[in-house]
Amino acid sequence: MSNQSVHGSRSSARDRADERESTAAVRLEGVTHEYGSTGGRFRSGDERTVTALRDVSFDVPEGMIVGLEGPSGSGKSTVLHAVAGLLVPTSGSVELRETDLAALSDSERTRVRRHHIGIVFQRFHLLPSLSARANVALPLVQSGVPRADRRARATALLEEVGLGDRTTHLPGELSGGERQRVAIARALSTDPDVIVADEPTGELDTATGADVLELLTDVGRDRAVLVASHDEATLEVADRVVTLCDGRVDDVR
């Protein structure tokens, strides 16, 4: 991986963005989403709902990192879930390379997510009984890749993220930073077009978080990355930052 520092200013990140092709890998247009609650009904009989997103529109260009910020409850997780195809918005569209995910069936959306979207979770979501290599290879099992090929792919990815000597270690034998690197390698296993990351440094100390950010910066050179975070250091590596407030886009910078 590159040894380049990831702590440059946001202005320099924007300068990099200006030099890149601005083709949108992901496009949200007028996305609104309402969650029904379990708290009963109004007197009118209408089901109680919570509007998590209101007319949200922005692009995630290919070869760029877009940061998503906002207070808890602002809608960041709902945006990530919509982009990852884990939910269908109430209205509006979420396009992945001009394919509207909301227009797909559940099975079609699962297939798109399996082959084109990599997800990095805050708390890693590694299976504790599987080795680092087996965790990285798991999406390839689901895609029907032969065992020898997925083993080779997982080994190569772990070497790429600096864990070539940890392939047989269980998650419980790894540090937090190492587990997040395994999670990123797993997200890359299908060579996706888009990486969606939810607070990727939230469980890490400052130094370890910086290493993970460097890795994400390298990852973002040839694919689209959407990362939600409260952490200013994480947002500093973004080429563009979208601010959400009460489910709406409040600012783009």
UniProtKB/TrEMBL annotation:
<dbReference type="Pfam" id="PF00005">
    <property type="entry name" value="ABC_tran"/>
</dbReference>
<dbReference type="GO" id="GO:0022857">
    <property type="term" value="F:transmembrane transporter activity"/>
</dbReference>
<dbReference type="InterPro" id="IPR003593">
    <property type="entry name" value="AAA+_ATPase"/>
</dbReference>
<dbReference type="GO" id="GO:0005524">
    <property type="term" value="F:ATP binding"/>
</dbReference>
<dbReference type="InterPro" id="IPR015854">
    <property type="entry name" value="ABC_transpr_LolD-like"/>
</dbReference>
<dbReference type="GO" id="GO:0016887">
    <property type="term" value="F:ATP hydrolysis activity"/>
</dbReference>
<feature type="domain" description="ABC transporter">
    <location>
        <begin position="26"/>
        <end position="252"/>
    </location>
</feature>
<dbReference type="InterPro" id="IPR017871">
    <property type="entry name" value="ABC_transporter-like_CS"/>
</dbReference>
<dbReference type="InterPro" id="IPR003439">
    <property type="entry name" value="ABC_transporter-like_ATP-bd"/>
</dbReference>
<keyword id="KW-0547">Nucleotide-binding</keyword>
<dbReference type="InterPro" id="IPR027417">
    <property type="entry name" value="P-loop_NTPase"/>
</dbReference>
<feature type="compositionally biased region" description="Basic and acidic residues">
    <location>
        <begin position="12"/>
        <end position="22"/>
    </location>
</feature>
<feature type="region of interest" description="Disordered">
    <location>
        <begin position="1"/>
        <end position="46"/>
    </location>
</feature>
<keyword id="KW-0813">Transport</keyword>
<protein>
    <submittedName>
        <fullName>ABC transporter-related protein</fullName>
    </submittedName>
</protein>
<dbReference type="GO" id="GO:0005886">
    <property type="term" value="C:plasma membrane"/>
</dbReference>
<dbReference type="InterPro" id="IPR017911">
    <property type="entry name" value="MacB-like_ATP-bd"/>
</dbReference>
<keyword id="KW-0067">ATP-binding</keyword>
